[in-house]
Each structure stands twice: as C-alpha cells, then as structure tokens.
Amino acid sequence: MYSLSRLSPLERVAAAAEFWILESLTMARLTQVDLIDLNRTFDDRTPLELLQWARVLFGNRVAAMSSMQESGNVICHMLHANSLNMPVLFVDTGVLFQETLDTRDRLMKLYNLNIRTLHPELTMEEQTEKHGVLYLNPEGQKECCEMRKSAPLDAVKGEYDALITSLRRADGGRRGVCPILAVDPRLNTLRINPLANFSDEQLEEYIQQNSVVLNPLHKQGFSTIGCNRCTTPVLPGEPKRAGRWRHLGPWSVYCGINPTDLDPDRSPAVDFPQDLVDRILGRQTDFMI
After folding, report:
1. pTM as predicted
2. Tens of pLDDT along 158-172?
3. According to the 3-state scheme, what is the secondary structure of the chain?
4. Domain locations in the chain?
5. What architecture is the 33-267 domain classified under in CATH?
6. Taking residues 211-221, what's their average pLDDT?
C-alpha cells in the first residue's frame, strides 16, 4: 500500500484509473462449474431477457450464430424485433443447400442484419483432391466437419467474449441437458443458449405469431439442415437428427461446432479479464485507493 495523501486531486484520479485498468486486465479463469448457480437462475429467464443481458454485459464483443435453421432464425428475428444490434456469424461450408444460402440473404434483407459469412480454407474440390472423400466413414466425417464447419470459426477467435447460439433441450440427445451458459475453450468465449428451455410448441408458436423467415427445406421433410452431402429428410417417427449422416449409421450425430455436443460432462474453462468474470457472475467489486 502507498499513501495518496500527498497527491493532488487530479493525480489521485489518474492513479485510481490506472489501478482500475490494471485490475481489469488481470486474467481469471471461468469454469463451467463457476456457472452452475447462474445457470440455475437463468432457467427462469425468458429468451429476450437473456439476449438483453448479453448485449448489455458484453457490448460490442458479443455475436450471434446461425446455420439458417428454425431456432437460429428465431434468434435472428428476436435481435431484429428488439433492436439488439450485433453481428450474426454464418459458416458457409461450400456445400450447403442453395435454399440455406437464399435464407441467409433473405434474413439480411428483411431483418437488416449484419451477417458475417465465414468460409473453410479449402474448397470441397481442393479438400477432396488433398484428402479424398472424407464423409464416407465416421472418422473421415469428423475430419471433414472440423475443416468445413468448426475451423472457419477460428478466424474470429479473440474478437468476441460471448457467442449466442440456439441449442434447445427439446432437440433431445446430448442437447437434452444443454446449459444456457457454457464455456468454449477453443474460442475462449462464453456460449449463450437463450432458447435452451424453449419447447417445440413454444418455438412453433413464436414462428407463427411473428412470421419468422424459415429455410424452405423444413417444409420438405428436413428437421435439421446441414451440408448437402450428408443431410436427408426425416421420416415420420424418426429422431430429429436421423437425417444427419444417415449413411454412417448411429456413430455420427453431431458435427462438433457446438462444444457441449461433444463432451457435456467435462468442466472446461476459459480465460477472461477478472473484471469481466466478476460482471458475468454478478460480483460486486469495490476498488479502494
């Protein structure tokens, strides 16, 4: 400790500001365990309340993600309808259905969204020339999804402290227990799922009441929509994700772009400035000089 009694008022303000900056730059670790209580509290919040919380807390360092499916488009509509201005990240794998690309363009035009399209390093032709047809076996599918879906997001690492995604527990499978808040060590961000508690009935009601722009493939039997090589319509009574990598059997169900799909039981961590961790967890910090 040192005394500030000999400093002028202006020097005291400068010293206090310097102290606050140093404190805010101190890095702290935020784990999934740290979020348990906050996740319980957020279970009672509406999607809009969660979106507003994210926008206020993270400011310009939050973005949404959408693959142009129902849930993601609902998030896009909520952002538009409530003037929650933030970019929307969209990964164009280079082998998406044209209907998916058209849906992105419609959202940009009708909702006035800033949709930032990310691309893989290689075209599908270049990838096939270099690695062969990867998606014909389970191990190759993981490698293909890594290069075409997950790796493009690495381009934005460091730009955002939070990413809003649209996972829902009603989707079942590993997503049946997805948390509202989840840490993403790869991108060192906090993933936020405002629709985690949204039931199928609530989703459909919101879509109908607000005339949400939808990917037309949903009306053609596609319950989920990915790349055109590995997505098929789903028969009545089949699981929602039965149309994903159908040719590979039950071994391939998720692509890996959502960390909680891969290993929901582990307790990963991210490194944020101490000030940001305190604000996420709702801690009150007094800086006394």
Report:
1. 0.81
2. 999 999 999 999 887
3. CCCCCCCCHHHHHHHHHHHHHHHHHCEEEEECHHHHHHHHHHCCCCHHHHHHHHHHHHHHHEEEECCCCHHHHHHHHHHHHCCCCCCEEEECCCCECHHHHHHHHHHHHHCCCCEEEECCCCCHHHHHHHHCCHHHCHHHHHHHHHHHHHHHHHHHCCCCCEEECCCCHHHCHHHHHCCCEEEECCCCEEEECCCCCCCHHHHHHHHHHHCCCCCHHHHHCCCCCCECCCECCCCCCCCHHHHECHHHHHHCCCCCCCHHHHCCCCCCEEEEEHHHHHHHCCCCCCCCC
4. 9-28+272-289, 33-267
5. 3-Layer(aba) Sandwich (3.40)
6. 95
